[in-house]
Amino acid sequence: MTISEIVDPGSIVADPVIEVRGLTKTFRRHKTIVEAVAGIDLTVRRGELVALLGPNGAGKSTTLRMLTTLLQPTAGTALLAGRSVVDEPDEVRRRIGYVGQGNGAGHNQRVREELIMQGRCYGLSKIESVTRAVELVDALDLGELVDRRVGTLSGGQRRRLDIALGIVHRPEIIFLDEPTTGMDPQSRANLWDHIGRLREQTGATIILTTHYLDEADAMAERVVVIDHGTVIADDSATALKANLAGDRIALTVEQDTAAIALADLAGDNPAVDAVVRRGATVTLRVTRSRQLLAELITLAAHQGITVTAAEATHPTLDDVFLGLTGRSLRESATAA
Ligand SMILES: Nc1ncnc2c1ncn2[C@@H]1O[C@H](COP(=O)(O)OP(=O)(O)OP(=O)(O)O)[C@@H](O)[C@H]1O
Questions:
Q1: Residue 173 is part of which domain span?
Q2: What does DSSP say about strands 49-53 and 205-210: parallel, antiparallel, or unpaired?
Q3: Which Pfam families does the protein's record reference (predicted)?
Q4: Could you give the number of structural domains in the chain?
Q5: Is 34 in the pocket of ligand 1 (CB under 6 A)?
Q6: How far apart are CA 241 and CA 237, in angstroms?
Q7: How far is Cα 137 from Cα 200, in angstroms, rounded to an integer?
Q8: What gap in Å lies between CA 325 and CA 231, rounded to an integer?
Q9: Fewer Cβ atoms within 10 Å of its own Cβ: the N or the C terminal residue of the chain?
Q10: Do 74 and 188 fall within a single domain?
Q11: Which of 224, 241, 258 marks a domain boundary?
Q12: pLDDT grade, residue 101 (50/70/90)?
């Protein structure tokens, strides 16, 4: 037996900082067993920014809570920076920062005091806490807010403070549970700037959950789609969209009969994965829309078919989810 038969080289991840195998959590609700997380495998490289995406109830928060030692797994293993969440929870906690959906800071405290107090809670000396608070105020742009009481901050400002509080102890791995939920688009973009900067400055690995597809698409270099407690897709947003959804081309002609002929013509093209005709419009799922659009219009013209309208669209992560599950992530998220 050769080495390549024993170990799949593609499965080896350089410098893994999170290694999760068969992670499972079941809850007992009344007399039924709820399998919130049903055997998740996940390996994350140092410095990666990973978005966990999935509809309500998919198991994202439960996964995060197990990885942050807040919840004991029913089965499976999870190593964070080489330490087991089950056997060495204190060691894990020293190396991670967790910013949950609720916020823990006292409303009457001032921002500066809150940051200094958090440093003290993590065992920093008074001077170290003050120095660290100054660094965090700078990193998360809290300068104008230091003398404000926490209760008076806006949602976006509060989230920035929550993140600062969660990273006082310079964690290697930062978990953010829905950091931008409920924020307006401008505040979301601003928070993302801060998350990006934080990552550049500290080299920390960041794992976050989000409901916002556009956000995961634009910001995360890796998207892990979770549904019913399992990972159903795991790749860069670009690769997920290219491999699982494909671009879409819609071609409209003058008559239904011409559309039928066009659908046949397009169906013969190897770059076309799926063809749907509705009336005089033919919609195609394709692997490379840019060249194909012109090619198909020319081919149609040679057959005497005039294309009157043409549109090429790139898929969204929702198309990926739809392709994988037959459901829209958007609808699933709002329905649950
Ligand atoms: N303590 C609990 N007891 C019973 N069931 C639970 C408990 N916590 C979570 N669940 C169930 O486990 C499943 C996964 O929940 P989880 O909160 O992890 O999902 P999620 O993907 O984070 O959802 P959301 O996006 O709404 O936060 C859901 O069916 C939820 O109702």
A1: 12-241
A2: parallel
A3: ABC_tran, DrrA1-3_C
A4: 2
A5: yes
A6: 6
A7: 16
A8: 12
A9: N
A10: yes
A11: 241
A12: confident
What does the angle CA 237 – CA 288 – CA 48 come to, to the nearest 5 degrees?
A: 20
pTM of the model: 0.80
Q: Is 60 in the pocket of ligand 1 (CB under 6 A)?
A: yes
CA distance 38 to 57: 12
Tens-place pLDDT, residues 256-297:
999 999 999 999 988 888 888 999 999 988 877 778 888 999
Tell me the two tokens of residue 64: 């995060």
Residue among 34, 211, 215, 329 to mutate when testing ligand 1 (max atoms within 8 A of CB): 34
**Looking at this predicted complex, what is its ipTM?**
0.96
Determine whether the shortest distance from the Cβ of 61 to ligand 1 is under 6 A.
yes
Q: Which residue lies with its CA nearest to atom 31 of ligand 1?
A: 57
Q: Which of 27, 72, 226 to mutate to test the pocket of ligand 1 (most atoms within 8 A of CB)?
A: 27
- Is residue 214 domain-shared with residue 269, that is, in the same domain? no
* 288 and 140 share one domain: no
DSSP per-residue letters across 114-167: HHHHHHHHTT--HHHHHHHHHHHHHHTT-GGGTTSBGGGS-HHHHHHHHHHHHT
Distance 20 CA to ligand 1 centre (A): 19
- Single out the residue of 114, 63, 99, 117 nearest to residue 195, CA to CA: 99
Q: At which residue do the structure tokens 């093209």 appear?
A: 269
Q: Are 109 and 256 in the same domain?
A: no
Judge whether 264 lies within some domain.
yes
Distance 120 CA to ligand 1 centre (A): 33
